[in-house]
Amino acid sequence: MTAQLVALSWDAHDPAALARFWAGVLRWESADDPRGGVALLPPDDTGFRIRFQPTEAEKIGQNQIHFDLTSASPDAQQATVDRALALGGRHIDIGQGPDEGHVVLADPEGNEFCVIEYGNKFLAECGFIGALSCDGSQKVGYFWSAALEWPLVWDQDEETAIRSPHGGPKITWGGPPLAPKKGKNRLHFDLAPPAGGDQEAEIERLLALGATRIDIGQGDAEWAVLADPDGNEFCVLPW
């Protein structure tokens, strides 16, 4: 069976503090992560945990992945913004126009996210995390659709999106122009084969789909580090 998306892993200078921020924004419960660090567990159909791991690397430029958070009403959008600001977030300007309906914020470590306006039809069927919005090519959208066996739910003008058949957020790629990659991404996907699955067989399948093996200094770690066709790192865990 195909590997599962089991976690979105996040590099953080202070994993515990960043986990507290996002637990407050998302209203998810925190838990010890089996691989160390801190994790947040979804209370809904999101389908993956969020894992926070320590790093000393500085953030350079905008992240390749950010959250699009949905709003059930105009008041709910404002409540999410207010909650994030009270927890240590801030407003940021990434070039959005004054007439944009969404609000762009950053968490305490500068990671961007958007609070989407009420009535957004594209995310209407999704939960509070409406999308993992990614900078990426059409080719990489096709890769991840095949890798996860999630159907394409959007494929137009080189923009793509996929969504699990079980629900949860969409994963979207905005198409060109792509921002130049500046070092290791701060957020990456963790995949794992289903219980009893063969990690090496899954790695070979992903390589055949267009992934490449990369070395980020992981040494003899039990997980493998690969890159998708756009060069974005992801891990394949043994379980």
TrEMBL record:
Cited InterPro entries: Glyas_Bleomycin-R_OHBP_Dase (IPR029068), Glyoxalase_6 (IPR041581)
Domain Glyoxalase-like: 10-116, 132-237
Pfam family, one: Glyoxalase_6
Protein name: VOC family protein
Biological source species: Nonomuraea salmonea
